[in-house]
Fold this sequence. Notes:
The structure is a homodimer. By secondary structure, chain A is of the alpha/beta class. Chain A has twelve helices and six strands.
Amino acid sequence: MAKFDMKEIKIVDVQVQDIRFPTSLQAQGSDAMHKDPDYSCAYVSIITSQTDLIGYGLTFTLGRGTEIVCVAVEALSFLFKGQRLHNIYTNFGQFWDRVTNESQLRWLGPSKGVTHLAVAALMNALWDLWAKIEEKPLWRLLVDMSPEQLVSTMDFRYISDVLTKEEALEILKQQRENDIETKIERMKTRGYPAYTTATGWIGYSDDKVRELCAKYLTLGFTAFKIKVGINLEDDKRRCKLMRDMIGQDNLLMVDSNQRWDVEEAIRWMQGLAEFNIYWIEEPTSPDDILGHRAILKH
Amino acid sequence: MAKFDMKEIKIVDVQVQDIRFPTSLQAQGSDAMHKDPDYSCAYVSIITSQTDLIGYGLTFTLGRGTEIVCVAVEALSFLFKGQRLHNIYTNFGQFWDRVTNESQLRWLGPSKGVTHLAVAALMNALWDLWAKIEEKPLWRLLVDMSPEQLVSTMDFRYISDVLTKEEALEILKQQRENDIETKIERMKTRGYPAYTTATGWIGYSDDKVRELCAKYLTLGFTAFKIKVGINLEDDKRRCKLMRDMIGQDNLLMVDSNQRWDVEEAIRWMQGLAEFNIYWIEEPTSPDDILGHRAILKH
């Protein structure tokens, strides 16, 4: 018998904490646009009527302004308090729509900036809660969902000209037939594939990059990201150093954190081509789709 | 002699007020996505060392969540306090860049949502202050600026693949030669051209729309906007009513406030074509540039 019965459980409170870490002291997290970030978070706890059932979610920030996200979480919390979990999870996509399209708050940008970050922490906490109710890790909750359940958690309004709900369903059905049991076994034995960014923050000395590459190679990493974008000659030196450390068979990626305009991005990446870069993250404004296409074509 | 000397004046404080109006009580401001807005604002006052010189700016909200924008203004205010006005206005574009790219706060989305709204109120207050120092209305401050000064107030980083600073400069120079004095005279005698949205909120009865059309025609308006997007048959009736009231020579525009996906937008606007709609505002997600192009082509 299941430990928790969704029909009986209500959300009784939403709490949020402003948690900051002084990572800027050692240039951890530093990149071409954020030279001194204090990697921090707004940490949300969704408290239920079942005292041993709490959902946790967080949204990432760079320090200053985390209090703005916390106030946004508080402003959204009235939509969560008093709700029965059963009503939320039987139509999760509709609940998401209710939260992001609240008729007065949506003006502040439901899919943008501060309220977007606040919604992310809250929805992450709901996903965490769902997995706990089902007594599974979150990845297994998702894998065990039917394609119909999965698409019901999403809102297709603004992407239906590119991908309809029916098309998404068809893709998921095909994927499911494609040897799902082997994939589940691999997740259980090998875990998530991951790359590391920890070796290449822009404020790190060459010696520190070398030392960290050695450490993460030993840990089994096969993909490494390095921050670029302030000075091309520095970037060439650092990419060479990284490539020398990790060898030709491992993957090397770069991230300029929105630093460039479109032409500069093309020129810069041509300058780094010899290091066999797997991909570039945020070469320019993340909203400039046509700009990204132009960069891709070069 | 000028009343104010920029070199002497500093910003000593930034104050922000959360001001709300219960417009939802009479459906004022209602549209297809915001059925009960309380048209409100975060109201910013930039206090200077010159007691009779204060800059005012506001950013518009729909009620709930205005407190989030106020907290964002407070979070940004350290960038303003203590600044000499001379340093701000001699390189306004650079100051804007400093505010929107503050290394920790920019993570929250400098050109998105809550922080975007907060920056807007603060920068509007700085423009108001500038006009007061020059003892001119703001439009005249802008008109009197040289093309070089105007482009220096802007940041071209993310649009340089479409419009460079040099191209913008060239456009402004050509415009300036194009009979600027006549245009200034027209502004002085006739004021700003404007359209009205006040006649067509979606929650208004047909009788109220009729009454308001008559009123705004008397006031001299020649362009009218009506909210659409919930029900096509209702929209046809309301557009016909509006067109009958304002006649064929005045302009009629519609606004669906992001209600539709791309296909629905095309179908709906074809349904309203007979009313000779001048333009449609926000037919779908405001960020979907390719979607807007697809709608335009139909």
